[in-house]
Amino acid sequence: MKATKVGLILLYLCVALSPEIACAAGAGAEESPWSAWMLFWRVANTVALIGLLIYFLQKPLTKFFSERKAQISKDLEEAREQRDKAEALLTEYKQKLAGMEKELEKLRAELQKSADAESAKITANAEKMSVSMVEAAKLAAEQEVRKARATLKNEAVAMAVQMAESLIREKINGADRKKIVEDYLVKVGGIK
């Protein structure tokens, strides 16, 4: 295989350079820098250089290109896998987005129920508090009325006592006082 490649390269160079050789030989008397022998040695040097390059670089280049080919194949396979995963994710997300509207509607309904329940609780608590506040106010008012009645009663009694005392002082004379004291002593003496 190596020999056929080298032979093909040499054949190509000979065919490509043969018009140059013919032109250089037909020029005749003038000495050209492109004489046939000079051209031959240049072609031989070029062929030798190409042969040496092929000999020394064939294995590393073959290895490099085969590794590169394997890496590219591996990268392509990974890219296909990632594309498949991305397409699967895209499909999944599209399905989720399609179901998201239903989820949002369901969530709104649940939030509305929760808000209604909380509102009912707050209203019930407010009613209970208002009832208890009214009862507390009634109790406080009743207590104030009782206090006021007791105060008025005490004041009325005190005024009645004062009035009775002043009436008694006005109407009782010395003889009446003496009789009251004697009656008292009799009663006290009778108790013993």
Supply the key terms:
192 residues, 3 helices
What does this structure look like?
This protein is mostly helical. The chain has a domain at 138-191. The protein contains three helices and no strands. It has helices spanning 2-26, 36-171, 174-191. The longest helix is centred in the middle third of the chain and has 136 residues, at 36-171. The radius of gyration is 66 Å and the shape is rod-shaped. The mean pLDDT is 82.
Order of helices and strands: HHH
Q: What is the oligomer described by this structure?
A: single chain
Largest sheet: none
Number of helices: 3
Distance between the termini: 161 Å
Q: What's the average pLDDT?
A: 82
**Helix proportion range:** over 70%
What class do helices, strands and sheet pairing give?
Answer: mainly alpha
Overall, the morphology is: rod-shaped
User: How big a fraction of the residues is strand?
Assistant: under 5%
C-alpha Rg, in Å?
66 Å
The count of DSSP E runs of length 2 or more, i.e. the number of strands, is 0
Uncertain stretches of 5 or more adjacent residues:
none
List the helices and strands and how they pair.
Layout: H1 2-26, H2 36-171, H3 174-191
Task: Briefly summarize what is shown.
This protein is mainly alpha-helical and 192 residues long. It has helices at residues 2-26, 36-171, 174-191. The chain has a domain at 138-191.
